[in-house]
Amino acid sequence: MKITITDLKNLCKFSLASGNAVIPFISFMYLGDENLVSLKSFSLISGSLFMAMASQAFNQVIEWKQDKIMTRTCNRPIPIQRLTRLQGGMIGFAFYAASNLLMYNYLPSNAVLINNLIFFSYLGIYTTLKTRSPVNTLIGAVIGALPVVLGAACVDNDSLYNLGMWGNFGFMFSWQINHFYGIYWKYQKDYLRAGFKMVNDSAVASKHMKICLGINGLSWFGTASQLSQPELKFISCISGLLSLYFWNYRAIKLFEVDPNKNANYLKQASYYFFLVYYTLLLLDIGIKRYQQKQIH
User: What residues form the membrane-spanning segments (predicted)?
Assistant: First the structure.
């Protein structure tokens, strides 16, 4: 059977992988002074994209039985036999090799190590834990925040200790908790039928999200404190407070009233929250680059 572009996109979850590639790139631009268009920038965004695509491909090779059972994943290429597991693995390995080749030649060695750490921890720890322990959600959120560290490692070692970097890391970690619980409660029966071990007590999930609400607040202000534009620092703090209330706290309270009914709102609110946060970061990056260009 001929492999199509659609098969590749679905196997590697191209949209999700693209989002994963943008996060380290924004972290890199936020913490460093590299030009937007440069060999280093290209190597980071393409290398992280290929690694994310590889991890998604191998994940589907590993979880093909669960994917076949779940309504939301049963039409992926391997369950419907558009691709074999061997073909999926070969495609995943090709992207994995391409990622390492790009990064090894143009980026610091610690960036290559972190990129591989994300790959192997995602498949070896998170994917394994999904069928064994509900702690997988918290572990997955830590792994999902590591692309921020990857971007920092591409700047210099000092950036790994930057308050803004850790603010960005904390935001990504805590954001993923709310986002995932929104997805999980929407498709809870699907996950249970496939044998995934998740937090099924909505009170426990709510407690997790409230802790993350505090982490989100501290992280937002940590990131804002390192913005280059004083005006944006103020705007970011105000935006953070409003976003925490309207798209975080309120979403959690609605979830507590009826988890199944309000799960979709929890998920959608997380997108708005994410959008505001990264729009402010991108604004700061754009202004800083413009000012640098004017000086030179």
Answer: 12-30, 42-62, 83-104, 110-128, 135-153, 165-184, 269-287
